[in-house]
């Protein structure tokens, strides 16, 4: 038995050294180390031999197993290294890799996010409405009479079915009040559309942010305080706000807000329209709701709206509004973070 084991061990090591490739080597491994391989089978025969012989035979078998495994693994490593070397031959690690393009947010989206974050801190929630809406939401409910120029076909995009591309995001004031009871604090970023001649400062599609706050005891002071807080948060503490009397059908009194910020320019810039919600707007909402939830005797509110495109242009130093919608990657790549 002992002589047999020694003989087998020699043969098995010879089989390893004569294995010319990886797959032959795998067969050799299986032949000896596999579940029913030679080494296991010989171990099983231990039971048949005399007790005194067992420790000696056991030792020999162990020696065989470990020397075989050692030599086998060494040979396996040689084959593995050869395969790796072959792979590297056909591969030039000095070649530049393929760069993965990482997208970034559009400068308008970045500004919307900043504006929303400021209003969130004041307890405003985001609301949305459709870009295609009815004249009722866009005009009638907002106390805008049939002869108002905004309703003119020259100024507004009408669809054949009578609906239109909303001319402002104020439509969502109505939709929000229709759905929820006061008090209400919402902000509405979104697109608005007008039949403007497209040039460096005008697009027929632009972006607005609507702000609406409705509840008991809301005053013009709240409007002023909120607007001033907002513009200072956005443009710096030295930003000044000026409220100029103006007219909007859906607010009374109404104002335009001019701001002056060393961050932007030395001049006053007209940036937003605002006012106290006109009682006629509350009445239109009540009529649609079929209740008296927005009782103008008890409830008041302020609204304001401003264009985001011009603000982005000023903050980024772009002098042509069309760049915001052309999706030129060279332009977009300049704004990969905050500006
Ligand atoms: N919707 C007005 C516009 O587009 C802005 C505005 C909003 C004015 C809310 C007053 C109140 O010009």
Description:
- The chain is an alpha+beta fold and 339 residues long.
- The protein folds into two domains: 2-89; 107-332, Bira Bifunctional Protein, Domain 2 (BirA Bifunctional Protein, domain 2, 2-Layer Sandwich).
- Helix content is 42%, strand content 21%.
- The chain has helices at 2-18, 22-33, 38-44, 54-89, 107-121, 135-138, 171-179, 220-235, 279-289, 309-316, 323-326, 329-332, and strands at 125-126, 132-133, 164-165, 184-193, 205-216, 240-248, 251-261, 265-277, 299-307.
- The strands form two sheets. It has a seven-stranded mixed β-sheet with strand order 1-4-5-9-8-7-6, with helices on both faces. A two-stranded antiparallel sheet has the order 2-3.
- Helix 1 packs parallel to helix 4 and helix 2 (22-33) runs antiparallel to helix 4 (54-89).
- The protein is elongated and about 115 Å long.
- The model has no long low-confidence stretch (mean pLDDT 92).
- Bound molecules: phenylalanine.
């Amino acid at each position: 038995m002992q002589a047999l084991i020694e003989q087998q061990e020699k043969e098995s090591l010879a089989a390893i050294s004569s294995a010319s490739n990886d797959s032959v080597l795998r067969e050799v491994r299986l032949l000896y180390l596999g579940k029913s391989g030679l080494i296991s089978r010989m171990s099983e025969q231990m039971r048949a031999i005399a007790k005194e012989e067992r420790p000696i035979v056991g030792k020999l078998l162990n020696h065989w197993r470990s020397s075989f495994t050692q030599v086998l693994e060494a040979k396996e490593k040689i084959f593995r290294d050869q395969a790796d070397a072959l792979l590297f031959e056909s591969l030039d690690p000095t070649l530049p890799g393929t760069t993965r393009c990482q997208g970034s947010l559009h400068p308008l989206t970045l500004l919307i996010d900043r504006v929303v974050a400021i209003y969130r801190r004041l307890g405003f929630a985001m609301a949305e409405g459709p870009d295609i809406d009815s004249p009722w939401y866009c005009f009638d409910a907002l106390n805008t009479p049939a002869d108002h120029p905004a309703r003119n076909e020259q100024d507004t995009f009408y669809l054949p079915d009578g609906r239109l591309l909303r001319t402002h995001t104020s439509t969502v004031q109505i939709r929000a009040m229709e759905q929820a009871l006061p008090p209400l604090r919402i902000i509405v970023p979104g697109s608005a559309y007008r039949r403007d001649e497209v040039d460096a400062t005008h697009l027929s599609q632009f972006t607005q942010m609507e702000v609406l706050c409705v509840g008991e005891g809301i005053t013009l002071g709240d409007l002023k305080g909120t607007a001033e807080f907002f513009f200072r948060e956005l443009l710096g503490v030295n930003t000044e706000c000026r409220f100029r009397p103006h007219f909007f059908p859906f607010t009374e009194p109404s104002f335009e807000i001019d701001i002056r910020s060393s961050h932007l320019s030395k001049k006053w810039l007209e940036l937003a329209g605002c006012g106290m919600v006109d009682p006629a707007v509350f009445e239109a909402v009540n009529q649609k709701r079929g209740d008296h939830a927005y009782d103008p005797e008890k409830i008041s509110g302020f609204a304001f709206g401003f264009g985001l495109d011009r603000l982005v242009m000023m903050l980024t130093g772009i002098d042509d509004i069309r760049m915001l919608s052309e999706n030129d990657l060279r332009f977009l790549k300049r704004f990969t973070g905050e500006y």
